[in-house]
Write a structure and sequence with these properties.
alpha/beta, D-Maltodextrin-Binding Protein, domain 2, 2 domains, three-stranded antiparallel β-sheet, 15 helices, 13 strands, globular, disordered N terminus
């Protein structure tokens, strides 16, 4: 549920869906009461309850993951959620999970940490992957319940593991990549997608001049362009959550990224209007309409291959995001996980088995296929019964891109200032309101001020 596929894009979309669907801004359950049974139904799985055993526990979640199509904010995947829950309930007849649906993402996140610090956390909860590091000290290991931990992609092991313990069952993700017109790259380039910024400027500029269309476009979401910074080895925060964008090599990576933005506009590759684009669907639509040759999109933008207004969808392909140097690779990832706070006893066993079911390969693959998401286990991509047809024709490439996935930092300063300041600085450069140097310095000053005001101790550049 974070960004597009939980990343920034999906996080924002889901928050809007929450508020529209519930009209709520509190963190109380919007459906499913504590200990509720859906009105005494004998069904094995209902919107409010999973299983009907004697050992009950509360599980915080979102209606995004409801097994009831009529209640779900993601009805296309409701059947996959139901199948997962039914299998778990059949295999564990002694347990019952009571679904406590949350109505506000931000309060949900803060309540988990606050309650966990007071030993009052729910037995288990669905968590945005970006919340996991802040909850590490409270989350319980799932190693005894999850097989083949080495099967997870590196970003899962880096973010959701600590000292060899898997602390969160990360059951899907998304990524960013370059979508490009193969016919135009063949005509104006060497047939290979741009690997470096220089390549992108050259071929994008040639296409823009020769075809009279945009050579390359992107939206203002932070996760679309943070990989340019990460690919150079740039770090947003240190291990203590202190912002370090302006320190030593990080500053070089930061400034070069924003200078690249300026080059895109100055060389006629990218129009200044991208500084106002915040709708990811717009990019795919423009691509299908023949208005752009290349753009940054999420894995869910593969729908361009079936856009009705594109008379030749096969001409589109995907590639790794171009980087400053050819040997650099990065893409932003997100997604949601299941975590357990209960430490021992029957409730802990029940909650851990419930969380582990989410990353059982069959359950993961079924959900990702239905929800148009990407698995976090490499082996799930090998299932011949999944991801069939033209809709999933880029799946093998997405698998390779995930090897270079980078998750957003969970440090509070990221959501408090870094994300918004990155977007603002980018907007100002693309719309030519500011030079890269000025935009970067303003961004660093504002992050410094936000961090100093929040913690009482600033940091220097």
């Amino acid at each position: 549920m974070s960004e597009d596929t939980s990343t920034d894009e999906q996080h924002d979309q889901t928050r809007r869906k929450f508020l529209l669907a519930t009209g709520a801004i509190g963190t109380a359950a919007v459906a499913g009461c504590v200990g509720g049974d859906g009105g005494g139904s004998d069904e094995l799985v209902t919107h409010e309850r999973i299983g009907n055993g004697d050992v009950e526990f509360d599980h915080w979640s979102s209606t995004f993951y409801s097994p009831d199509e009529d209640e779900s904010l993601q009805p296309a995947a409701a059947s996959a959620m139901r199948a997962r829950f039914e299998e778990w309930a059949e295999d564990n007849p002694e347990y019952q999970a009571n679904m406590v649906y949350q109505s506000d993402l931000d309060q949900w996140e803060s309540q988990l940490v606050q309650r966990a610090s007071s030993n009052e956390a729910p037995p288990s909860s669905t968590l945005d992957s970006v919340w996991v590091p802040d909850n590490r000290e409270y989350l319980q290991p799932l190693n005894d319940y999850v097989d083949d931990i080495d099967d997870f992609f590196p970003f899962v092991r880096e973010t959701a593991m600590q000292d060899g313990d898997l602390l969160a069952a990360w059951f899907y993700t998304g990524l960013r990549c370059l979508y490009y017109r193969t016919d135009l790259v063949e005509e104006y380039g060497d047939g290979e997608p741009p690997r470096t910024w220089s390549d992108l400027l050259d071929v994008g500029g040639a296409i823009a001049e020769g075809e009279g269309i945009d050579g390359f476009t992107l939206q203002m979401s932070a996760l679309d362009t943070l990989p340019f910074f990460w690919g150079q080895g740039g770090e947003l925060v240190d291990d203590d959550g202190v912002p370090v964008l302006g320190n030593e090599d990080n500053y070089d990576a930061l400034l070069s990224t924003f200078q690249f933005f300026q080059d895109l506009v100055d060389q006629g590759v990218t129009p200044t209007r991208v500084g106002t684009i915040d709708d990811p669907d717009q990019l795919g639509q423009e691509g299908a309409n023949g208005q752009t040759a290349m753009f940054i999109g999420s894995n869910s933008r593969y729908q361009i291959s079936v856009e009705p207004n594109d008379d030749n969808p096969e001409r589109w392909d995907v590639a790794e995001l171009p980087m400053r140097e050819a040997d650099q690779f990065a893409t932003g990832v997100g997604g949601w996980t299941e975590g357990v706070y209960a430490e021992d006893g029957e409730v802990a066993d029940a909650a851990k088995s419930f969380a582990a079911k989410a990353v059982e390969p069959r359950a993961m693959g079924r959900y990702c296929e239905a929800g148009s998401q990407l698995p976090t286990r490499a082996s799930v991509f090998d299932d011949d019964d999944l991801f069939a047809g033209d809709t999933f024709r880029f799946q093998d490439k997405f698998r390779g891109f995930l090897e270079n996935g980078v998750a957003r930092p969970s440090a509070p300063i990221y959501s408090q200032a870094i994300e918004a300041e990155w977007v603002t600085a980018k907007e100002r450069v693309f719309t030519q309101q500011s030079s890269p140097e000025s935009a970067v310095q303003t961004m660093l000053n504002n992050i410094d001020e936000a961090y100093d005001g929040d913690s009482g101790s600033g940091y220097g550049y």
